Please model this.
Amino acid sequence: MDEKQLYVRVRGKVTGPFGFQQLKSLRDRGQFRRFHEVSEDRKSWTPASSIAELFPQTDNRSGGQPGQSAEAQTTGVLKQPRSAAAAMQGAALWYYVDGDGKEIGLVSREHLVELWQSGTILPTTLVWKEGMNDWAELSSVDAGVTSLKHSKPFSTGMLATLSFIFGLLWFGGVGSIVAIILGFLAIRRMNREKPNVRGKGLAVAGLMLGFIWLAATPIIVALIFGLFPFHGTIMQRLSTSATPEEITETYRDRVYFVQTDKASGSGILLANKGKRGLIATNLHVIDPELEAKPELKKIMAGQIPKEIKVSVKNPTQLNFGQARVAALYRNSDLALLITELSAEGSRGVRVIKQRSLKQGESAVALGNPRGLEFFTSSGVISSTSGEMGYIWTTCPLSSGNSGGPLILSRRGLLAGITTIASSGKLPGVSQNLNGAVPAEDIILSLRNRQSDSWIWAHDLKELTFDLAELVILEE
Model:
């Protein structure tokens, strides 16, 4: 053997060549073991245990151990005391080779199970016990050790699977949060219990989906509320350049002829829920005297006179129905009515915010000029800066148009409640200069529950606030 030069291979790493004395020295220092492989030409490899001069064959009945010298076997000098083996009452005792190539033992089979389950040893780890001729991989040995491969089978983690499922489902952002939490827990468990639990890819996917959906939740919610508002069914959204014909047909059942024993005019149904509807009109349509003398409203002490009788009718109805005055605006020519509808439903109009109006864009006014039922007139928005508190338009208006809607061609949005006709309240003002109270003012006042801005029929106050919530404000 002295003349031979041998190469040594362990776990794919080749070192050498070494002479016999060098190998013996390495063996004595624990750096060369019987589970290593040797070769003269680096092509044909044999176990180091086949070199009898270095690793004498052991009579297993003598209690020898792998890698133990003959002298040690004879004298009984063991790496682990024989008394330890005796103390374990004949249980199967094992050695294994750790990641640094060191022999570790004696250990029980139960301890091997624990080491395998914790990931300390692998199915490819070399093991040996008394009665075996040589070291062998854990996965290949008999005598019950092979059951280690199945004692805790590989499985896809349930937490990882749930994380991925919740990441897909979203559930309004709640699913995304759950996916993120479960994904973190799954990865933490896998790092702790590897290699027994698989599914890290699912956990990572669940985490990513959770973060993506969570970041997108505000946008999704905004879109859902815009298209399918939860607080009521909204009127049909028209095109960006709706024709007067389309607008007239859409609003036909929402424009009312409003009549009292003192005056008549128009009104617009802002919202309805069930058979209760909220109509906006002008104060001077309800009571011209109150509108002409604002000081009279201060004398009313917050209570609408019950003797005011109002009847309303839209073009789809044959007969007038009764309505009650719900509120009178203290600082503007506005009044709100509550009426009973013939059919149940839940709808609210779309109202444009005044700052989004565009000077020169097309508009349509609907109403009942001079007692004539349901007329349409077209024009443009003359001014958006709110002079005198009004939106100004060139849509032709007459006295009976008062209280009717001013509607934009843009998506059929309600812009205002027509109030001032150049041929009526503003003598001397040029023709085709007509004003409307911004509809946004009404909705914001009711949404903010500005009770003091109105004179109320107190039993209708909460109903009025609730109906106003059905109206949508848009840019």
Notes: Residues 1-55 form a domain with the Dna Ligase; domain 1 fold (CATH 3.30.1490). The radius of gyration is 46 Å. Residues 59-90, 148-154 have pLDDT under 50 and may be disordered. Residues 200-227 form the longest helix (28 residues).
